[in-house]
Each structure stands twice: as C-alpha cells, then as structure tokens.
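Entry 14. Structure prediction run on the chain below.
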Amino acid sequence: MSTTKKGICYRIGDSSSSHILPINQIIYSPTQRELFTAGRDGSVKVWENGDGGSFRSNEDQTRNEREQCLKLEQAISGRKVQYVFPVDAIHLKGSVQIHNDWVNDIELIETENTIITCSSDLSCKLLNTKLQETTTLPPIHTDYVKRVVATQDGFVSGGLDKKIINWDLQKLRAVSVMDNECGIYSLSSESRTVATGGQSSVVNLYDVRSTTKIRSLIGHQGMVRCLLQDGHFILSGGSDTTIKLWDLRTFKVYKNFDIHDFPVWAMSGDAKCFYSGDRGGNIVKTDLSNLFVNKTDRYFENTFTTNECTSIDEQLGISTIIAKNESPILSICHNEDSIFISDYDSLSRYVNPDTSTLAQYQFLKTCLDYSPSDDLSDEAQPNDDLNSMFYDLVSHLSVDTANNELQSNYSVEQEEPTESYNSMFLNVNGGPSTEFVNAYQSDLTVSDEFVDTTPIEILLNPTDQITPIPFNLKPIARYEIVPHSVVSKRILNNKRQIMALYLNGDIRMWDILICKELKNFPSRHGKLLTGKELEYRLKEMDDLVQQYQSSDTLNNWCEVEIKAGKLLVTIKDTSVMNVEIYYDDMVKDYPFLAIDHPETIARMGNHKIAVGDDDRFHLGLILLNSIFHGYTMYEWVFDELLREEIRLQKPSDSDSVTSRLKSWRKSSKRSLTEASPINSANVSVNEMPINPPLSEFLNTPEENLAKAVPQYNDTIMCLLQANKRIYQERPKSGESVLRVNHVNPCLASDEDELKYFPVINAKHFPSDMNVILFEYSPELGNYRDLSYFKISDINNLPEFPQQELINELRCSIPRWIGQPILYNRFNIKESPKITFRLLEVDYFNLPPTVKIGGKSQRKIKSLPALESSIKLTSHNMLRVSKILYFLTDKFEASTKEMKDKKLKPTDWLVLECKGQELSNSMTLQTIKTKIWKSSTDIELRFRRKFD
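Output returned:
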C-alpha cells in the first residue's frame, strides 16, 4: 500500500441531542439498565431505562407429561398471550459524536464498562459507558468497518476490506489479521471461534488463535447479513429471507426457519430465543427454549433416540409476529419486557410477549403425539382425548358454533372448515400457524390500545384460511429521528461561506472559517420534507445563493462534504494555501482580525505594523495558526527552556523549570491570556504546577521514537528532534529556530521587523469544536480517522499543559502543519498570470446622454497618454483598484484630479470590460471568468467617472 497522507477536518453545525440520521445498531445492558444506540450521524447515545417488570412463571413441578400438557392447554385456551406492560419510560441520558461517518456497529463489554464502535470512517474506537473517554485504535482497516464482536480476550472487527482483525483489549493493539473471501457484513464469536457472513452467501468459521479457517457453511442463496453464535450453534439470517440454525458439531443445518417474506436485515438473541426483523418491516420472535438441544428440565428423559429428538425438534418453535413496521428494520434488541427496533425514521419500543407456556405445551403435545401411547400410559383409551385435553378446545369453540352440529374429529364424511381465523403465530416452516389461532369473540372488548388481546385457541382441524396479525397494534413508545441532517449544500464564490439545506426544510448560511451561522431561513413546514417539497426548497436555496453570491472567482482551499448528516470541512496540504483574502474584505467579515482590534493589539506587544486594504492573507494559514495557537505558545516556552538546559549542560531541575515557566508566564500574562475564552476564575496562572518533561525529551534516543511513532518522519516530533540536534551542536548561540514570535510579535524583540499574521481567538470558534486528524490514500475506501482534538484543550495548553495531548500533537500532526505554525514556513504556489491590455474608452461610441465633465462623445477631454506599453501581465488576484493606481503613475502628465491630494484614483477613474463598469474590488481572475470569457488577452478600457 502506498504511503498515506494526513489532513485535518472539522464539522460545521450544532450538535443535536437526538439522532439526526437512522440508528444502525441498538444494544441493551441488563446490568446497567441502559440502552445504547449507534447512528448514521456518527454519534453514540445512551438511554436510561427504569426498573422493568418480570414475566409470570407458568412452570409446574408435576412429572406426568400428559397431566402437565392438559394443565398448559387449559392455561392457554381462551386466554390472551401473557405479557408485562413496561411502565418505565426510557429517556436520553447522554450523547457523544465519536465518528465522522456512519457508526455501523457497537458492542458492549460489561466487565470493562466499555463500548466498542466501528465506522465507515475506517476506524474502531473504545468508549467508556459514561461517554467520557474515547480511545482510537491503530489504523488497520482500509475500507468500511461493518461489524465488531466481543471475544474471550478482546474483540474482533470485520469490514469490507475482507479483513478479520483480532484485537487485544488491554494492550489496545491487533493480535492477528485474517483474510476473508469477501467483504464482511456480519460477524459472531463464541470462545475461540469467529463466524463471518457476507455477499458470498457462505458462513465462514475461523479459529482466532491459530488464525486458520475451520469450515465453510453453505446453504444460503444470498448475502448473509446477520449472525448469532451460542455455544454449539450459529443462527444466520440472509437476503434469501431464510434463517438457519447450524450445529457446529456436525457443521450442518439443524433447523430451517421460513418465517420471513423479505430479506432478513436484523437479528438479536441466542439459540434459545431470537428476534428477527426484515426489509418489509416485520418483527418476529422465535422461542426455541423447548428444543431438546436447549432443554434443562427432565421431561421425556431417555425416551427418544438422538434421531427422534432431532425429528421432534424440527417441528418445534413458537414464532410470534411482534409487529408490522412501516419501514425496514435496521436493528433490534430486547430486554425482559420490551423489544426495541430502529428503522429509517425512528427508535420504537414494543411489548415483548411471554411465549414460554406455548413453547412448553407445543413440546409436550408433539412428544405425546410422537411416542407410542402404550409407552406413556397403560390405561389410556383411544377416545380419552375427547374427555381430556381436546374437550377444553371444543367447549371454547362452542361459543361460536352453538347452533351447529359438532362434527366428530374422526368422521370420514367431515366437511372442509369454512371458518377463517387470525393468528399472531407463524409456522417455522412457512405460513401462518395451524396450531395456535386467535379466536374472535363478539362480546370481546378491546382492553389494550397497544397489543392484541384476542384469546388464543388451539386449532384441531388445520385450515388454509388463516390471516397473520401482529401482537403489537402500535409501538408503546416512538422516538423519531430529528430531521436536522444536511441534504444539499452550495459553496459561495468567496470560498468562506456555504449555504446548506436541511431535511426539515431549513436553509442556513454558515461561515466556513469560524463555523458560525450567518443567516437562517426557516422552513414554513417545520417537519421532515420529502419529494416535491424538498425539490421546491432546493430551488429556493439556489435563489438565495444568487442573492448572497459574491463576484469572486477563487480556487478551493478546503473541501466541504456532507458526512453523517453534517457539513464536514477537510483541509489538505495540496490546497490549504490556494486562497487569499484582502485585508478590507477580511476585517469586514471578521472585525476582530483588524490590526487595531484589542485582541490583535494584545498579540502585537510593542510592535506597530502597517497593513493596507490591498494586503492579502492566506485563509488556510489563518485557520492553522488559530487552531494550534495555544500549542505553539507551549512549544515556544518549551523551546526556550530546552535551550537553557542544553546551554547549562546539566540535568533538568523541575523546580527551576517550573519557576522559569511561571516567570515567563507572568511577563507574558496579558498577551497570552487576556482574550482567552476559557480561564479558571479560581486558579492563578502562577499557581499552576508545571513540569515540562525536559529530561525525557533530552534523553530519549531518536531511534526509539522512529520505531514507536508511525510515519515518524512526517511528524512535528521529528522537527523538534532536529531542533534539539541543532541546539546541542551550537549550545552557545541561544537563538531559537522556531518562528512563533513572527506570528505573535509580543514574543519578539522590538528590533525585529515583522509582518502581520492574523490569528482568530479561540473564543470565536464553537465551544465544543473538535479538529479531527485523518489519513487518506487512493487505496483507502474513505478518510480514516486517526485522532481528534478539542480546540478548547489546545487553546488552554499554556495554562494547563496536558502532557498526553502534547505528545499526541507532536507524534501525529504532519510536517505540512508543523512548518507554518512553528517555523512560519509554508509553500506558496505561484499564482496564475493573466495578460491584459489597457485602452482608453472610445468616447465617440458613448450615448449622447452620457456626459463626463459636462461634455459628451467627441467633446470629452481625453486622459493623458501612457508612458509605456499598454500590454501587461500580473497575478490573477490583482484588483481593479491597483490597476487604477498604476494608471495614474504611468500617465505622461498630471490631471487636475491627480493634483488634488485628497482624491484617490478610485475616486475619479473607472475601468470597463466589454462595456461593463468594474467594481474596484474585482480581480483579474473574476473579470476573465465572469465577463471576458475568453482565453485571449483581456481588454480593459479606462475613463473618468460619468457625471
């Protein structure tokens, strides 16, 4: 793989407490009673759940299978499905924006209080359950990371790069990397075995310790999107609409489930009970607790052979239609009384029915029907069933058939049943259940608005006229996705402002440089917009863009993309120095950058620097110097102390270093802290315990750093080590190689002649603004997150030095950022040159109504001739005002206006191009692009202003 390059990025827009894009994954912590959601908006949120209820137990201690079956039948027939209605609401407790792109999966490790996340930004991260600490793992994946799953010693991640990475959770590093046959969309783990699923329709099994492939499970006809592993079994859900239970002892399908008509997109649970959701919005609970392979009681112990047990298990399984959702199910999880699902629009909560009684009855009834009657009871008679377990059903059905003759179950002349039924249960082999139905009763009143309480009946005579119905009539709670995601954007010509359209129809205008909202055009609807409404609003945004558009024609100094529903500004070394801004334009939009503003005066110290309206400043350089201002101040102090230690040729004394730093701070307190946005009101700067680790920096061999730091040669640490070598070679010179004082003249001596470099005070950025460091290359499927920094933390480094943050900045920030912020060195691309000719206006062609000096056409007095050639070449940012000043310098004689010292050339001269009068701030590039529109030399004509 080619060498990756680094860039920085940041998000524009307010952080939302709710999800603004669909939720990709939900997990529930039974010990903490909290719900964690991971969204396509790059955030992880925690929801608090109160104390829930518990299901009523229907267990009975009787050992007689037939008697127990009868008791269960009586408990089922004519009664509603048992459930506990959750009385506890969930509410949002916390949120963290952890990724720059979709969070595809999360895994909770209860023992470590840790959440593992993986994302389309190619990174895996660790987050503590309080959402306070984030750790980014070393970058290995080269494409979207789709799944993570916990193992005995850590966790495993899998992505579209076909890699399966086994991570050590304690050492925070990869233990091994395995290659899968195709991109990974599903992942599961048990003990030392990992299963993967993807587009190939094959489930692959791997041993994570030996990193070898164990077996391929072939059976699905489409993509395997879901995997659950439980002991000796794996459950797989596929795009072929089937779910399969695999026995890992035989590597064969133990049981098939044909309970969905759409591709299965989400699953949770285990081999005893699992929940599944499909693209059609159907949610199904399948209770397998009474399969022989799952049984813990001793019913029918030693009664059947292994093959007979397998045959009986094929008939078992209670699949309940939990709900029919309006849109595809993206994720699903459950607790004891609730089922949580996410779809494109919301997070919904449904009642979780108790199917244990039905599952136990089904098991006993199936075994009784399967086993020889004389093995179970010596006294049982052929028609005993009519007087025992089936009699109860007949008595209940007689409610609707009181006037009809009840036919014998054994009559050869029996007619086909004409009654139709509803059923909230499915046959695991396909179609509605022919075993349990919901019998409508005319005198039944709806007792619950959320769940169907129609009584259950056990159906004796199978019928095809069964209509599937859901148990839940509607969600008991629904938390909608907030429609605050960006759907479209337009960057204005000045490359500093952007217009964004949000899903709720709002249109906002933002400043890219300081992430400030400039204008807001609220939607008339105030709700999620779709289709024609969005198209109409998009046209309105285009009209607004034209209304606020500038005449600039500039290259891009940054890229603005829509990622995770927000505007993401990315900055790379290839374009950061592409755009300049004139001083007058800068102070108009950013008055705090004016040379006479108090914030600037504090940085200037005693230096007086002259700045004119036509001076230009690079936008990218302004941003870099502003973001890392606090860090560069720290390095300036550290560099001074480093030079002193080397000059004294003795080990660092922490007390002397601390006192020196305090002394420096005291003299520089006004310039450094006067405009600081975050200062402690209770702690004096001089009271802060500071001990820069000079000894460690001086004594650590550079070879060790080169081995430990990734891409060491492209880091600030490499630059600082070079400084150290220079100081050690000439310890007597005492001069710093850093040029932080050139950007902050208050640090420089009064004799230095300095230029003005604008720096934005941190208080003008959003208080929660983060800067993300990423890497990119043609081989990577996306920008890959490396680390992120809070601007407030960076700004506070002179006051509160965090050594961990300082080391991270030194060892991760690339040279192309380090060179300008520490050494004031930057590569400026030569601006494109544009050739133009200067001609006087042909006054004869002017309309007779137009007058100059009271005269028209040929009577207008011409301007003096030019001294030299009228064909000129200049950089593309040259302004019309500069050309006018040039003209007056090149006239052979002085005009009366030129003799008036109070008049500037821009007060009485104008330029035209193709008959259009040009504004003084217009540049050659704008004229060529917007007006001249040709590759030939531009013709500019000059004249006095019209009367």
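Residues 1-16+550-647+703-829 form one domain.
Filed with the rest of this week's runs.
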